[in-house]
Amino acid sequence: MADPVAGLVSGGRSGILTGGLRQQAADRRRRGPPPRGVTTGGRRPTEGCFVRRTMPIRRRGRRSLTALLVAVALLFGGGAAPAYAEPNEGGTKKLRDALETTAKAHIEAKAKLDNSKRRQVQLVRELSTLETRLVALSAQVGEVAAQSYRVGRLTPTSMLINSASPEMFLQRAADLDMMAQRDSKRLRTLGEAREQARQAKVAIDTEVREQQKQLLVMAKKKKEAEAALAAVSSGGSSGGFSGGSSSSARPAPRNSDGSWPSESCSVNDPTTSGCITPRTLNALQQTQAAGYKRYVSCYRSGGSGEHPKGRACDFSAAAGGFEDETATGGDKTYGDNLAAWHVRNASRLGVLYVIWYRQIWHPGTGWRSYSGSGSPAADHTNHVHLSMY
């Protein structure tokens, strides 16, 4: 007799129907056809009699099919499968929105701060060059002034009158024109250099104010992040994780001013059938290139957070994939190293935040304690969660 369970496994919903029909056919073969010639009240068997004989068989077939469905449900887990990775990373939607907003604002302010510092360094270098040039130009102009003081101011009239011959007159006229051009150029160049130096100093002052502004933004966003994390944190910084010493991940592309370009869920996710952003793909590839090659899942439809946007990945701590238990031993060490590696390469990859083993790393706050609903998935003790800018 064909196995109905095998039919279900291989055929899905059609397997259920096929298995039930095979069961009914087997019942009929086992009992044989209804006996012929049996009379009821001196009459031949009627169609109604045949129906009465077969009704129990059909009921038994339906009962067999029902029992089969119950058995299959128990076999494949009639209840909800345990969630080995938290569907909604980062607690409540309010917390997730706060984490995303504050982390993005911090990263953007940090990029502006770093860009301003680079401009300041360049301006200081230009000012130093200008000041060196000013010294040389001032010396040249000083020579002209000193010569005029020693011999008196040489006027064109006196030079030309004292010419002994027409040839000397023409030579002196040419010399006079050359000296006038030279002195005028020196004075003009000196004036331009002084103006450039002044503008450089103003620009440096502007960059200093810009840096102070961005530092205030970062401090504000840090307070906002700490206030949001207070709901899932015992307060204060946590120890974080050691390991992951390498900081050599290939940087993701940035704009010319150092900011991160806007990206959409536009490239295929190699871990699922969904999509991720190019920046997330780079982070995934660099993570695996660094030796962290255990099971990972990125895109996830439905819910909120970064997964449906293609901007998050869950990295299993266990070698065999997600397990509904807290990581220990080598699995815990693997997660520690992976989380630390992501943080060390955060600015190169564009990391928004990292959650691992009841702790969360935010670019504005550093590591903070974190607690979910108590399960390994919610507390992130069985996987490292990585969210990307």
Explain what the structure shows.
This protein is of the alpha+beta class and 389 residues long. It has three domains: 4-76, no CATH class; 109-229; 233-388, no CATH class. 56% of the residues lie in helices and 8% in strands. The chain has helices spanning 4-11, 13-31, 47-76, 93-151, 156-161, 166-229, 278-289, 329-344, 346-349, and strands spanning 267-268, 275-276, 296-297, 312-316, 351-356, 359-362, 366-369, 383-388. The strands form two sheets. Strands 3-4-8-5-6-7 form a six-stranded antiparallel beta sheet. Strands 1-2 form a two-stranded antiparallel sheet. Helix 2 (13-31) packs across helix 3 (47-76) and helix 4 packs antiparallel against helix 6 (166-229). It starts with a helix and ends with a strand.
Secondary structure elements and pairings:
Elements: H1 4-11, H2 13-31, H3 47-76, H4 93-151, H5 156-161, H6 166-229, E1 267-268, E2 275-276, H7 278-289, E3 296-297, E4 312-316, H8 329-344, H9 346-349, E5 351-356, E6 359-362, E7 366-369, E8 383-388
Helix pairs in contact: 1-2, 2-3, 4-6
| C-alpha termini separation | 58 Å
Number of helices: 9
Total DSSP E strands:
8
Give the low-confidence spans: 1-62, 65-83
- The helix/strand class is alpha+beta
Number of separate structural domains = 3
Query: What does the oligomeric state look like here?
Result: single chain
Q: How big is the Rg?
A: 41 Å
H and E order: HHHHHHEEHEEHHEEEE
State the share of residues found in helices, binned by percent.
55-70%
Strand content: 5-15%
Mean pLDDT: 75
Give the overall shape.
elongated
The largest pleated sheet is described as: 6 strands, antiparallel
Going across the major beta sheet, what is the strand order?
3-4-8-5-6-7
